[in-house]
């Protein structure tokens, strides 16, 4: 038996099993402990009323009912709408600048670098940069008074409930536009150059080139980015958490989830919220998969 | 007529680019100005005004020492290096096994990793925290490192994609020559994966350096601040001292800026590859 086992170990088949086992052991263990176990617990906890410590009480779907009926929870979905709109503006801007910066021009790399740079900056630093930007007599107010707007007419950008979510989504656009830009430039540059030459001979202008050559060729990248942006819009957390801590109606769904779990220690309710978000993300992913099935098949 | 419209088009192009560039950098430039101002100067001057001296470094000294940013850098570096090595090792090992070997559970294991990319990480923390707690890892660097290594599926994805384009003939001939799988992995696969490793290092480096919520939730102890959390802690004590906060912001941004200037091309390609799979 022992000899047989040693022989098996030394054989190719044995070696294969050893390498598969040893190489996968740690990665799989980590995956199970920090992704699947929390996932399973999240679903389990979502049916309980509980904290991190102490008693648990089974409450059925009560937590889910709360997520959808309590106005202070459900209202956070409305905040996402601002970020959705921001995402669309972000895509449009990125598309516009990408179609300019994909072609030879003076200062192309400098502009590309400057427009991309915000994406690399630390989230907390961005939060503070824009607290300074939006504060009374901060960057924005100073610029506005410089062009003659009286200070009394300038609103409080982060306190006024009518506009604070717009201010925050602006920060989001400022931060993430650069990555879309780079991805669009990559896609546009992979278009065959002969197409432009041919269209120029046919007398097409820049808009026609954009409409009939560029746009059709990068449709997939644009939709992919749009879906990523939509996913981003429903899971906004960092910027509003750092800048306003969710005050004055700027709480997003994820901020509410984190606050419910870590501040109020309502782990059951927070788990239900996390499940709801996960289902939403999965739905969007399913739509994405469905829309890109052809594309995937080709690859 | 056509010439004029072309001229206007070019002009508009540049005007819009310059405007957008101003929007991108002015918020940062004014912060840079403020970071050199004395408290009185800050109070008396406008946000857009230049500082009197670009040599007034007191705010920087305060941000570094009182603001704990030195410690923040140290902790970030420790976490960054260990997580990076861990991610590269686990990522390449997983990718190697999943790409080069046929075994029964292969499909299941592969989908197990791929499905995990769909789960939004922030909300997972609700229950992940409880698991960390029962492992008694709250307020240790290990907690954050484990999360960075264990939940980084994008790296595996990138490595697998890269391996798919490397012909198996190299490993096969080595095996015919009597090399073990371990030798093949360390001597042949690892060196070939270098470009993919660079990509992962960039994505991972940017992510870890900029990550806020993981250290914020798992390392609340003052001794364990990282760059993000040490800057975040400026909010309370320096609430009214914007010039110190601004110095903190600039300190945080400078390493990113330097890296960007030197590795621009790698960063563009690395981050676009990472973003698609997120």
Concise overview:
Chain A has 299 residues and is mainly alpha-helical.
* Spatial separation of the terminal alpha carbons of chain A: 49 Å
The structural domain count of chain B equals 1
Proportion of β residues of chain B? Answer: under 5%
Note the overall shape of chain B: globular
Uncertain parts of chain B: none
Strand content of chain A: under 5%
- Largest inter-chain interface? A-B, 85 and 85 residues
Named at the architecture level, the CATH assignment of chain A is Orthogonal Bundle
CATH superfamily of chain A: MetI-like
Q: What pattern of helices and strands is seen along the backbone of chain B?
A: HHHHHHHHHHHHHH
Number of helical elements of chain B: 14
Give Rg of chain A in angstroms. 26 Å
CATH top level class name of chain B: Mainly Alpha
Question: Kindly, what is the distance between the CA atoms of the first and last residues of chain B, rounded to a whole number of angstroms?
Answer: 48 Å
What average pLDDT do the residues of chain B reach?
90
Q: How does the overall form of chain A come out from the CA principal axes?
A: flat
List the helices and strands and how they pair.
The complex is a heterodimer of chains A (299) and B (278).
Chain A: H1 2-10, H2 12-45, E1 48-50, E2 56-58, H3 62-69, H4 71-101, H5 108-116, H6 123-134, H7 139-146, H8 164-189, H9 193-201, H10 206-217, H11 219-234, H12 238-243, H13 253-262, H14 267-291, H15 293-298
Antiparallel strand pairs in A: 1-2
Helix pairs in contact in A: 1-2, 2-14, 3-14, 4-8, 4-11, 11-14, 13-14
Chain B: H1 2-34, H2 39-44, H3 58-65, H4 69-100, H5 106-116, H6 121-134, H7 141-150, H8 153-164, H9 169-176, H10 181-192, H11 194-210, H12 213-218, H13 227-232, H14 242-277
């Amino acid at each position: 038996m022992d000899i047989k086992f040693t022989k098996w170990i030394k054989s190719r088949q044995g070696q294969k099993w050893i390498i598969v086992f040893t190489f996968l052991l740690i990665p799989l263990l980590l995956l199970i402990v920090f992704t699947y176990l929390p996932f399973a617990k999240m679903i389990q906890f979502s049916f309980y009323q509980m904290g991190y410590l102490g008693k648990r009480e089974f409450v059925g779907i009560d937590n889910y009912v709360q997520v959808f009926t309590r106005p202070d929870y459900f209202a956070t979905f409305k905040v996402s709408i601002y970020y959705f709109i921001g995402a669309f503006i972000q895509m449009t801007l990125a598309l516009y600048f990408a179609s300019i910066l994909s072609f030879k021009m003076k200062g192309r790399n400098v502009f590309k670098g400057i427009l991309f740079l915000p994406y690399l900056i630390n989230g907390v630093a961005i939060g503070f940069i824009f607290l300074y930007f939006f504060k009374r007599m901060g960057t924005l107010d100073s610029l506005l008074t410089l062009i003659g707007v009286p200070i009394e007419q300038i609103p409080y950008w982060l306190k006024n409930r009518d506009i604070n979510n717009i201010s925050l989504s602006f920060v989001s656009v400022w931060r993430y536009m650069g990555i879309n830009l780079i991805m669009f430039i990559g896609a546009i540059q992979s278009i065959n150059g002969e197409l432009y030459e041919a269209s120029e001979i046919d007398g097409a202008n820049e808009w026609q080139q954009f409409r009939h050559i560029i746009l059709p060729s990068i449709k997939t990248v644009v939709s992919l980015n749009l879906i990523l942006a939509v996913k981003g819009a429903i899971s906004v957390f960092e910027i509003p958490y750092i800048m306003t801590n969710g005050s004055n109606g700027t709480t997003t769904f994820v901020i509410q989830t984190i606050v419910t779990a870590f501040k109020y220690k309502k782990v059951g309710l927070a788990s239900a919220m996390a499940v709801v978000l996960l289902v939403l993300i999965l739905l969007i992913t399913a739509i994405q998969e469905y829309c890109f099935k052809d594309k995937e098949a080709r690859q | 007529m056509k010439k004029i419209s072309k001229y206007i088009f070019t002009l508009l192009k540049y005007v819009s680019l310059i405007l957008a560039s101003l929007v991108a950098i002015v918020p940062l430039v004014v912060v840079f100005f403020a970071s050199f101002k004395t408290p009185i100067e800050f109070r008396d001057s406008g946000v857009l005004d230049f500082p009197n001296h670009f040599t007034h470094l007191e705010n920087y000294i305060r941000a570094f020492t009182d603001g704990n940013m030195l410690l923040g850098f140290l902790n970030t570096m420790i976490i960054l290096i260990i997580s990076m090595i861990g991610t590269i090792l686990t990522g390449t090992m997983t990718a190697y096994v999943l790409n080069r070997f046929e075994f029964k559970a292969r499909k299941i294991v592969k989908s197990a990793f791929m499905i995990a990319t769909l789960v939004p990480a922030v909300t997972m923390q609700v229950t992940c925290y409880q698991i960390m707690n029962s492992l008694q890892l709250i307020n240790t660097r290990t907690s954050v490192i484990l999360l960075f290594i264990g939940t980084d599926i994008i790296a595996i994805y990138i490595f697998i994609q890269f391996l798919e384009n490397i012909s198996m003939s190299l490993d096969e001939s080595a095996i015919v020559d009597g090399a073990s799988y371990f030798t093949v992995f360390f001597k042949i696969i690892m060196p070939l994966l270098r470009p993919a490793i660079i990509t992962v290092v960039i994505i991972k480096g940017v992510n870890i350096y900029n990550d806020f919520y993981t250290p914020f939730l798992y390392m609340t102890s003052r001794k364990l601040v990282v760059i993000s959390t040490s800057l975040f802690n400026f909010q309370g004590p320096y609430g009214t001292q914007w010039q110190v906060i601004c110095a903190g912001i600039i300190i945080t941004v400078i390493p990113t800026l330097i890296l960007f200037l030197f590795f621009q091309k790698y960063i563009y390609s690395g981050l676009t590859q990472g973003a698609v799979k997120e």
